[in-house]
Amino acid sequence: MLYRDLPIVRVEDDSFIPSTHPVVEEMPLSVTVNGRHALTAMTSPAMLREFVVGYLYTERIVKGLEDIESIRIEGRTASVLTKNPFAILTSHKTVLSGCGGSTSFLDAGHLPRIRSDLTLSPETLRAATKETLDSDLHRITGGIHLVGLFDGEGRAIRIAADIGRHNALDRVVGYGLLEEIDLSRTFAVSSGRISSEMVRKCLVANIPAIVSRGATTTTAVEAAEAGGLTIVGFVRSRKMNIYTRPDRVAGATPLTPEGRALGRP
After folding, report:
1. pLDDT tens digits, one per residue of 194-242
2. Which pTM value belongs to this model?
């Protein structure tokens, strides 16, 4: 269960009414890699195996699913063994639920480049965004992020919910790896802002496009441009903003460096 009904006092005009309201669950998940504590993630209690696999991959602790020997999840602890016993983090991390991610500095020059010839239609992006955001859980609680992984035809591969959008992205990446999906033929849809950390994870996973109903940031745009990732924001009704690599969207006109509007809606 991703939420609980908690007691509240509802205020309506001058009336104070005892009631209940659904509130999203948040739990700490402690992850050890080869016997050493690697991170503690504040996350939603669902798809924990997928989250761990996706996180290890997007943080480049493992290069692929074949590098993972075993994953054991018991309660609030995940224990991972890798084929390389030295595949551990050099320092402990805490991934908070506030969507801030865990990377304080992004060096675009050291990120991988997208390797994909995927082309997407505007209608595919609109439909996928609508499907991702069509969530009963979000409507009930108002406190959850959603990330969808779609194939090039706009078919949903997996939609994940979490209190943090970075965690949700790790979940769909992990799902894709576990299901042996070719991530170079997919794109991601996020319910929240496209941050530089979301861009970094897509570049590492070789997901060629990320889409959102919301905004992006200048650092995210710069990193995406350097890595060949397509960012599409403000997908609403018949409108959308393509910030980087418009050649991946059918019918779009390429942008010149002088004409690009960094992070501008």
Report:
1. 999 999 999 999 999 999 999 999 999 999 999 999 999 999 988 999 9
2. 0.88
Q: Is residue 98 part of a domain?
A: no
- The model's pLDDT over 142-175, given as tens digits with 9 standing for 90+, comes to 889 999 999 999 999 999 999 999 999 999 999 9
Q: Which residue out of 39, 48, 68, 99 is catalytically annotated?
A: 99
* 99 in active site: yes
Task: Report if residue 81 sits inside a domain.
Answer: no
85 lies in some domain = no
**Domain CATH for 219:** 3.40.140.10
3-state SS record for the chain:
CCEEEEEEEEEECCEEEEEEEEEECCEEEEEEECCEEEEEEEECCCCHHHHHHHHHHHCCCCCCHHHEEEEEEECCEEEEEECCCCCCCCCCEEECCCCCCCCCCCCHHHCCCCCCCCCECHHHHHHHHHHHHCCHHHHHHCCCEEEEEEECCCCEEEEEEECCHHHHHHHHHHHHHHCCCCHHHEEEEECCCECHHHHHHHHHHCCCEEEECCCECHHHHHHHHHHCCEEEEEEECCEEEECCCHHHECCCCCCCCCCCCCCCC
